[in-house]
Amino acid sequence: MFNNLAVCQAVLNALPDATFLKDRDYRLVFLNRKACELFGKTAEELIGQTALEGLDDFLVSHILERDKLVLENGEPMEYEERVTGRDNQITVFMVRSSRIMLNSLPYLLISLHDISVLRESEAQTRYLAYHDILTGLHNRTALYEQLNHVVAPSDRSGQTGGLLMLMDLDGFKNINDTYGHQAGDFVLCEFARRLQHVVPEDSLVARMGGDEFALLIGSDILRQDAELLCLKIVKQTQLPFTITGASPFVTVSVGVIHIAESDTTAGELLRKADAALYEAKRKGKNVHCFYSESLDASLTSKRRMEKALATALSRNSGISCAYQPLVRASDKKIIGVEALARWEDPVLGEVSPVQFVPLAEETGLIIPLGKFILRQACREMRCWDVLSVSVNVSPIQLRDGAFARMVLELLVEEDFPPQRLELELTETAIMNSDANSKEQLIALRLAGVRISLDDFGTGYSSLSLLKDIVVDSVKIDRSFVQFVTQLKDTAAIVTAVSNLGVKLNLQVIAEGVETEEQQQFLVDAGCTQLQGFLFSKPLSQENLEHLLTDNGMDCLSLAAKEK
Description:
47% helix, 5-stranded antiparallel sheet, 8-stranded mixed beta barrel, alpha/beta
């Protein structure tokens, strides 16, 4: 026969959890090896004790209260208990307690299962779900959840107040491109640290992703206090972000909205704050802007236009080229055309390039738009083999690493000679170009494509650009041509540019010529090509063909060219 006590002890010792029996005085009468290890004493030392020594009074009271309930009611109980050890390390136990009857006497059978790792894992999972790993700030999910609480009817109680800010670091992409992503991560973390230093203690600061941050203040805040906070935030980027060997420059744009009773969803608040942020960037960045209904209407209109433009490009519908002739100054003969983008939408009607070209640059649609215009111009002007074709290039296009390859492949596809193509780049585009962009310009020139510096003289570094970047022509901006016969200073500038161009063996093109007097002055000043309404406004392909035919020029067919 087995010894019953020995069997019970062997079974209990095999259990993975600390397991023990308490009598009705809550004293230990039986326990397994795991329980001895947990309490740090032998069974002989523990029998007859409560094993509650060293615990704080509140925890002791809590444990005894639970033991009493189980012992009196006989209902099993399962609960968690957090115990602080001698080394101040917290252990979380799952406590399972039940009453058993032995020899008609009640006892408590208790097991302790260490779930500390599980709870730590769950806490880590919750943390990761609501925090940004890089900066330690809250993330978009946490902000969105808190916004939902702010706009919930039960949390509003008929009151208004609170503030939402969206912040975007201006020029952050250049830091990644120039110094690497490690430097970019440093700037993000440092800005997060500075942001937390200046915001109110009860606010929620979040990183929305990339270089965009958010701030939510749930309580009421006056307009003047919000203004001061915005200025503090903008000022944070004026201090240098020093990394090894460099101090990259970055600014911040801020969009702000006061939370009103009419704001009923988190999405609505974020959309309005985004509209204010968009306006801050439009104003030149490094500023803050408060939301207003007029901003919302403007942004809605732009988004509608953006969607329509994207649709037009995807369907090759509504986008076309207009062509403005360039004439040789010496004999007024047409020697080339400038291709200009035009867009007519079935709903929006005829949209001005002043509206849709900047929009295309802001949204990235300038890449497909620029390619479409280049292809269309090469295709429609291909047979006029004596004409050069000028196409404008945006800074965004130039920064595209595949730009040069795209141009040269397109020329092959359209059977258009590189020597007939001239790409017009503004001073800003060239100034903001990186080493890769300049290499692409060199590759294009080596292939025969000509480069023109557009709007020459309107910036601050035009002369140095002529030294640093090899171009084939400069285009005097219409703002100079307009007053060339009226203002002496303007006339002197135009004459100086023309003389400089001649000495550098560049073609000097004057745009915006509208009168005979302007024409005569520009010819005398040394301009080699002229463009403007005096000669022709931008024309459709059909009307351009009529003009060229009237000027005695013929369009050679492909068949004739092949012969």
